[in-house]
Amino acid sequence: MTAAVKQVVVLSGGVGGAKLVDGLAAVLPRGAMTVIVNTGDDFVHWGLRICPDLDTVMYTLAGLAHPQQGWGVADESFGAFAMVERLGGPAWFRLGDRDLGVHVMRTQRLGAGMNLTAVTAELCHALGVGARVLPMCETPRPTMLDTADGVLEFQDWLVRHRAAPAVTRVWSAGPTAPSPAVLDAIAAADLVVVGPSNPYVSIDPILTLDGVRAALAARPVVAVSPIVGGRAVKGPLAGMIEQLAGRAPSPAAIADHYRDFLGGLVIEAGDEEPSGVPVVATRTVMSSAADRARLAREVLAFAEVLP
Ligand code: FO1
User: Fold this and answer.
1) From the CB of 52, is ligand 1 less than 6 Å away?
2) CA Rg, the chain, in Å?
3) How confident is the model at residue 2 (pLDDT cuts 50, 70, 90)?
4) 227-271 pLDDT, tens per residue?
5) pLDDT tens, position by position, 81-138
6) 8-304 has which CATH code?
7) CA of 210 to the centre of ligand 1 (A)
8) Under DSSP, is residue 135 helix (H, G, I), strand (E, B) or coil?
9) How do the domains of the chain map onto residue ranges?
């Protein structure tokens, strides 16, 4: 690639993906980044449409995200949660009062007939988020997991069951059409970055939408490994690679998962191993805003030298 990177599209899900998005937002000019976000984690809870990965990206870019958790809002109160619990309502999924404000507004705007892309843009604008944040599709497409305890929806498995039941299959229910803006963004991208997200539950829901893998195969694509030293930086990924791919968690497992469109892989220094694609090794664990910006710069620099 020779031209300076103009439009960057990031595929993101979970906390790791949002951190890299934050670093890219810090180093790219305003208007240069579009984030395509997994909505397979979405569910209806307390009668509200909850979109965890959209909110994690939005809160992170708005500087509102809970610093340790990565998801939810900093400086939260749980007055409403405590009342719901007192009334015998579902209390396995912690919703803070400020977070609730977003779910209330999103549910109200969707109910008024707006689509999720428009509602997300409205919420991001209100919170001062400059990047374009796109849900992967407009309609619900819940991620389902076949487990030893039966078929579970994603949040039920991850939060209520603490990701304990072994997973034999991850799949998506619902329509398979990406939103039009998603395919347009990929087609217009000078570079696509796949964040350090869980390939099975955060990225596959995006890849399995009609036309997405083919669109990616026509663009330069760089991924950041979510596996460091054979372990997941956060969440249940290492066990999922062993259960679903029947192999040890490693950069090669990530490279193979994205084989048909991957141009290069950014891995943790020390994890070097043959993985069939160009690789750059650096520090990929992001513990500060400086780490996020540095990794973002290294991803962009790596993309510049790819064939
Ligand atoms: N994760 C938990 O482990 N426990 C929770 O109670 C919880 C609440 C929650 C509320 C809003 C939100 O946007 C995310 C929340 N998460 C919680 C995280 C969520 O399950 C994951 O971040 C994503 O779905 C996958 O990364």
Assistant:
1) yes
2) 18
3) very low
4) 999 898 888 999 999 999 999 999 999 999 999 999 999 999 999
5) 999 999 999 999 999 999 999 999 999 999 999 999 999 999 999 999 999 999 999 9
6) 3.40.50.10680
7) 27
8) strand
9) 8-304
Rounded distance, CA 228 to CA 196, Å?
A: 10
Q: Both tokens of residue 235? A: 């969440």
Closest alpha carbon to 224 in 272, 280, 170: 280
Provide φ and ψ at 59, rounded to 5°: -65, -40
Ligand 1 site, residue 156, Cβ cutoff 6 A: no
| Cβ of residue 91 lying under 6 Å from some atom of ligand 1 | no
The pTM for the full model equals 0.97
Query: Residue 87 C-alpha to ligand 1 middle, in angstroms?
Result: 22
Ligand 1 atom index nearest CA of 155: 20
Give the residue whose CA is nearest to atom 14 of ligand 1: 52
The reply to whether ligand 1 has any atom less than 6 angstroms from the CB of 268 is no
What span, in angstroms and rounded, lies between the C-alpha atoms of 202 and 195?
A: 9
Residues 170-217: pLDDT tens digits?
Answer: 999 999 999 999 999 999 999 999 999 999 999 999 999 999 999 999
Q: Is the CB of 76 under 6 A from ligand 1?
A: no
- Environment class of residue 290 by beta-carbon count within 10 Å: exposed (0-12), middle (13-18) or buried (19+)? exposed
Contact between residue 238 and residue 249 where contact means Cβ atoms under 8 Å apart: yes
